[in-house]
């Protein structure tokens, strides 16, 4: 398991971390993705507590620097939604037995310190220790700088939606699976 250098603390989020985690996520939607908050895609961000903290099969991991949340990663018991994703993909990764890795975001000032890899490792360990999960699934927008190389270093590609144009122009969605540890 990868460990971040001091002075970062990586742990499951508490209610006190919700505001900072939400800020990291919303900043990422606007700054890195360029499309901002989309209610249909991001409702978990508004209610982090009931989505991640109140469900024993879900987790929100955070990295803190001097007490401030600077990175996030979550696991939800949900597969990819159809639509917008292909039906066969939703059937391959059904909700309930699929641990979907979500919200892997690091504030720009704290990138290149191993935080994303550490958070993903810890989230995958959570999924492996939670009864009922068969695999870890994720999708990412590979148009975001560094995303594609990062995920290819950790996960196996399942489907490159860029080849079908299913998500429309400007959205480079690629779907991946990470074996449970």
Defining traits:
6 helices; 32% helix; 181 residues; 7-stranded mixed beta sheet; alpha+beta
Poorly predicted residue ranges: none
Helical content band: 25-40%
How many E strands?
7
In percent terms, what proportion of residues is strand?
25-35%
Strand order of the largest sheet: 1-2-3-4-5-7-6
Please report the distance between the alpha carbons of the first and last residues. 10 Å
| Overall pLDDT confidence | 92
Spatial shape? globular
Radius of gyration: 15 Å
Q: What order do the SSEs take from the amino end to the carboxyl end, as H and E?
A: EHHHEEHEHEHEE
Total helical elements: 6
What structural class results from the helix and strand content? alpha+beta
Describe this structure in a few short sentences.
With 181 residues, the protein is α+β, with helices and mostly antiparallel strands.
């Amino acid at each position: 398991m990868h460990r971040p250098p001091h002075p970062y603390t990586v742990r499951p989020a508490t209610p006190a971390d919700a505001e900072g985690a939400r800020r990291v996520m919303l900043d990422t939607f606007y700054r890195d993705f360029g499309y901002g908050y989309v209610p249909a895609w991001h409702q978990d961000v508004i209610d982090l507590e009931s989505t991640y903290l109140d469900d024993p099969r879900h987790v929100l991991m955070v990295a803190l620097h001097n007490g401030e949340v600077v990175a996030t990663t979550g696991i939800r018991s949900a597969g990819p939604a159809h639509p917008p994703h292909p039906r066969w993909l939703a059937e391959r990764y059904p909700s309930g037995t699929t641990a979907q890795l979500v919200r892997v975001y690091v504030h720009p000032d704290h990138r290149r310190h191993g935080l994303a890899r550490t958070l993903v490792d810890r989230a995958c360990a959570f999924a492996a220790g939670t009864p009922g999960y068969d695999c870890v699934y994720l999708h990412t927008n590979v148009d975001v700088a560094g995303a594609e190389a990062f995920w290819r270093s950790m996960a196996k590609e399942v489907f490159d939606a860029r080849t079908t144009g299913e998500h429309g122009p400007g959205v480079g969605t690629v779907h991946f699976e990470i074996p449970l540890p």
